[in-house]
């Protein structure tokens, strides 16, 4: 039994318990609300998964997510046209991602340190130079793009559709394209992939460019959903939630394993927990306790059922 | 003798009127003026906010900066960036640096309590702004949170009378903060008087609009006939507003905040039905007055226990007028 299956079983068990005990939990409206509230988390999770499978990690993903969207709103507020503001915001995100990739692939700095530094740099630079205020409001002129975060298509909120789209693209990329397959090779055994002639450096840069692109998309969804962007999210625990969604779903930090399915499993678990506890009106502090307990239980079950093998011991996790 | 007296009187009157004439030509010196400016010269005011960059702290800082610049004082801002640890460190190092006045914006009621006591023991006047700690220092300047909680809940109760579902929800920020504990008490005071009102949800959004949106979407889903929401901070409550908009229902949303332009705009647009504001620039003015008071009084730190509540400003479509709100953007220029 893999961790993914364990998490899926916990998801199903929780779903059944909540369906029976909470009135209105299984209503279609609530289920949409449930998925919607974790859609952004899931989208960022897909971006992170692409990296973790290749034995990388992007601690700057939340900073890029928050600051690129905040700068876009700030530019639009200053009178820049919306498409141009979005383009500039995206280029900002992309350049942060590419610099990350170059630092890791060519300068050979460990991903953990390179992206940790980049997270502070992106946040600090953007706050100091680009975005003067903590919370940036969406100007009235940007109402044309508010559908990204708050629109509906066939009764389904747009963020859910974006989550589905990003998941599908992520799946297709990882499963059927050459760079996608090579990411698994990189994660499984970097040296072997390199010796066998894989263009490892450019693939690493590509990975970080992808995660930055996904971060920008997620940022625009959040910003247009609540008509503002709170740049403080860059300092919040969101980054841990993203890593959690990825690792909990069963994508090992040692790389080479897992796929988009795992991200969806992890995201749904978090979503069901949050939604159920809000319906039960559980106090905020108690919510944190329950959430952490369930996550710890999932990890303990995994390590009992899947003891660490020699290979992992030799390679080590991140 | 008599003639001499008259002569002397005339001479006196003449010289007095001459002096008066001289005074009105050159002005009268105010003997207290020199002392006034001397009090401030070279003094240091330290400010430890919860974070810079939000409308509240930027507003206070701008007024404090103006006072410091005019009177030749130094304003030191230590920005702990929403981290209570960093804030505690900042205050600890300030205690040894000994500024004359320390202005503190507490993240919660406990974190800094002991430090503030130590600061006053070290002779630093401590002024707490808007969010207080358990320790009562020289001065508290800020909102009357219990009063605001009462006003907010009353505003919702007034709109959710008979004929509606009478179901209301509360969206707190951070339950351990000085503001939330007060507002919650105020809201409870009103709920006690209105047993017909049902509180169906009481959740915390951690000052984050995204979390607030997710929580309120679930609450509305669960209580489709929800009548009203009491939110504890306008910046966060934009998330609740987004959830209401998505649900397509008309739910009363009453909030409170610093009365920034965003609040007036959103009341005008009908996003908020009402905001109970604590005008930030006015609070900044009171802060500077209190800085003057503690410096001029000559009293040792910790002697006074002054409380100044900011008079609340009720922003509704009916009371709205141009210039009612202040603009954080204009501070930058």
Helix-strand layout with pairing:
The complex is a heterodimer of chains A (318) and B (333).
Chain A: H1 3-21, H2 28-53, H3 61-77, H4 82-105, H5 111-130, E1 135-137, H6 147-150, E2 152-153, E3 156-157, H7 158-176, H8 178-188, H9 190-195, H10 200-225, E4 228-230, H11 238-248, H12 260-279, H13 284-305, H14 310-315
Antiparallel strand pairs in A: 1-4, 2-3
Helix pairs in contact in A: 1-12, 1-13, 2-7, 2-8, 2-10, 2-11, 2-12, 3-4, 3-5, 3-10, 4-5, 4-10, 7-8, 8-10, 11-12
Chain B: H1 2-26, H2 33-40, E1 44-48, H3 55-71, E2 74-77, H4 84-97, E3 101-104, H5 113-121, E4 125-129, E5 139-142, H6 145-159, E6 167-172, H7 178-193, E7 198-204, H8 209-222, E8 228-231, H9 234-247, E9 252-257, H10 261-268, E10 274-277, H11 280-297, E11 306-309, E12 313-315, H12 328-331
Parallel strand pairs in B: 1-2, 1-3, 3-4, 4-5, 5-11, 6-7, 6-8, 8-9, 9-10
Antiparallel strand pairs in B: 10-12
Helix pairs in contact in B: 3-11, 4-5, 6-7, 8-9
Instruction: Find the CATH topology of the largest domain in chain B.
Output: Rossmann fold
CATH architecture of the largest domain in chain B: 3-Layer(aba) Sandwich
> What's the quaternary structure here?
heterodimer
Q: Using only CA atoms, what is the Rg of chain A?
A: 20 Å
Name the poorly predicted regions of chain B.
none
Main sheet: strand order of chain A? 1-4
> Approximately how much helix is present in the residues of chain A?
over 70%
Pair with the most extensive interface? A-B, 37 and 40 residues
């Amino acid at each position: 039994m893999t961790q993914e299956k364990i998490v899926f079983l916990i998801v199903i068990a929780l779903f059944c318990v909540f369906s029976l005990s909470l009135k209105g939990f299984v209503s279609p409206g609530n289920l949409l609300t449930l998925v919607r509230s974790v859609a952004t988390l899931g989208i960022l999770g897909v971006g992170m998964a692409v990296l973790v499978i290749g034995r990388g990690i992007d601690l700057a993903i939340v900073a890029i997510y928050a600051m690129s969207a905040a700068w876009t709103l700030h530019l639009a507020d200053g009178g820049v046209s919306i498409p141009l503001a979005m383009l500039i915001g995206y280029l900002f995100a992309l350049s942060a991602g590419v610099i990350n990739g170059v630092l890791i692939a060519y300068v050979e700095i460990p991903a953990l340190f390179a992206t940790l530094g980049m997270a502070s740099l992106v946040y600090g630079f953007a706050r100091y130079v680009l975005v003067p205020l903590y919370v940036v409001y969406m100007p009235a002129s940007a109402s044309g793009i508010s559908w990204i975060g708050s629109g509906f298509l066939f009764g389904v909120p747009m963020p859910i559709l974006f989550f589905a789209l990003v998941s599908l693209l992520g799946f297709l990329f990882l499963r059927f394209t050459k760079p996608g397959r090579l990411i698994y090779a990189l994660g499984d055994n970097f040296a072997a992939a390199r010796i066998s002639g894989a263009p490892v450096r450019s693939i690493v840069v590509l990975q970080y460019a992808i995660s930055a692109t996904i971060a920008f998309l997620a940022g625009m969804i959040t910003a247009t959903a609540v008509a503002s962007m709170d740049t403080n999210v860059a300092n919040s625990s969101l980054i841990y939630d993203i890593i959690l969604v990825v690792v909990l779903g069963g994508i090992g930090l040692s790389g080479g394993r897992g796929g988009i399915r795992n991200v969806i499993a992890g995201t749904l678990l978090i979503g069901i927990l949050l939604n159920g506890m809000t319906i039960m009106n559980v106090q905020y502090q108690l919510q944190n306790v329950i959430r952490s307990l369930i996550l710890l239980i999932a990890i303990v079950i995994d390590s009992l059922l899947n003891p660490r093998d020699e290979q992992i011991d030799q390679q080590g996790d991140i | 003798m008599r003639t001499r007296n008259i002569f002397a009187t005339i001479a006196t009157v003449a010289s007095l009127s001459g002096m008066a004439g001289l005074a009105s030509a050159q002005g009268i010196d105010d003997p207290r003026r020199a002392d006034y400016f001397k009090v401030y010269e070279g003094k240091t005011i330290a400010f430890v906010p919860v974070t810079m960059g939000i409308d509240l702290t930027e507003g206070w800082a701008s007024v404090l900066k103006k006072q410091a610049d005019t009177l030749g004082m130094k304003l030191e801002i230590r920005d702990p960036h929403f981290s209570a640890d960093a804030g505690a460190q900042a205050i600890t190092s300030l205690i040894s640096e000994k500024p004359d006045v320390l202005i503190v914006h507490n993240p919660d009621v406990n974190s800094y309590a002991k430090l503030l006591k130590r600061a006053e023991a070290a002779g630093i006047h401590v002024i707490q702004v808007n969010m207080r700690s358990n320790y009562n220092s020289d001065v508290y300047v800020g909102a009357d949170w219990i009063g605001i909680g009462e006003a907010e809940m009353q505003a919702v109760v007034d709109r959710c009378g008979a004929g509606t579902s009478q179901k209301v929800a509360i969206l707190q920020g951070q339950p351990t903060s000085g503001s939330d504990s007060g507002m919650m008490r105020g809201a409870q005071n009103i709920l006690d008087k209105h047993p017909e009102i049902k509180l169906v949800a009481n959740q915390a959004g951690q000052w984050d609009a995204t979390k607030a949106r997710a929580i309120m979407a679930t609450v509305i889903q669960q209580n489709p006939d929800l009548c009203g929401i009491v939110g504890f901070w306008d910046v966060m409550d934009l998330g609740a507003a987004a959830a209401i908009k998505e649900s397509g229902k008309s739910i009363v949303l009453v909030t409170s905040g610093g009365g920034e332009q965003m609040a007036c705009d959103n009341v005008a647009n009908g996003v908020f039905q009402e905001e109970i504001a604590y005008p930030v620039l006015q609070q900044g003015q009171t802060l500077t007055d209190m800085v003057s008071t503690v410096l001029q009084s000559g009293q040792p730190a910790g002697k006074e226990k002054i409380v100044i509540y900011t008079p609340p400003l009720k922003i509704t479509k009916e009371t709205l007028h141009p210039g009612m709100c202040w603009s954080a953007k204009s501070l930058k220029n």
